[in-house]
Amino acid sequence: MSSVQINGLWVEDSGGAGEAVLCIHGLGGTSNFWSPVLPAFGERRVIRPDLAGAGRSEAAPEGLSIAHHVERLVGVLDALGIDQVHVTAHSMGTIIAQHLAVEHPQRVRSLALFGALAAPAEAAREPTRNRARQARSGPAALQEIADAIVKAATSAETKAERPVALALVRESVMRQPPEGYAHNCEALAEAQPAEVERLKVPVLLVTGDEDGVGTPAGVAALAARLADQRSYVLQGSGHWTTYEKPFECIRILTDFYNKQ
């Protein structure tokens, strides 16, 4: 496993000459969101970037958008000489993944989307902009945001039985660069749906029964727009699926890739 900077993004690359998987984390995440499910990728080459403004990667001075993220990720693939990838994504990353697959269909072999959403609900857009303003007040605000996300975005079962998962979610959000996190909140608030009806690749959809972002109803509506999909709802899981239900996610992902 190597960690390199490509086009301003820090990227973890497992290496190898086999099929590649591009892993796209969500808002408040980093490349580490995928660590619990790495066994599901087998011998495939796994590419895990920290998105612009997240983790170790700096945000663009002019701000961020879904289109900006798509462009930067295509640049990573070009720099690594990778023509086609399987894409797995979480939360805001699923919006990026959908646009990537629609706009660059020749580059994407499949999509595996966790806590997926087509775009934010209209009622969520202004609160997401407000979160950007809160984040800009500094690291103390990120702690408050992290605590609120742990409370609202994880399941009752996780809160009762998985303290390490709670710590992972809190650490991931709390350590985000404030300005970069704010930029990504604004990118999410402005995100629009991709024309997923155009997709011909197989799509895996996984969400939690207590996921208030990629809700089961929202995922079902997204599934209805897709030509080739399979969907799973994990019982006792909130929005942070790979932290809350890692073994179930590994099983589902492994089965999905074995059928490609």
UniProtKB/TrEMBL annotation:
GO cellular component, as recorded = membrane
Gene Ontology molecular function: hydrolase activity
Boundaries of each AB hydrolase-1 domain copy? 20-246
Q: Which UniProt keywords apply?
A: Hydrolase
Report if keyword Hydrolase is assigned. yes
Per its record, how is this protein called by name?
A: Alpha/beta hydrolase
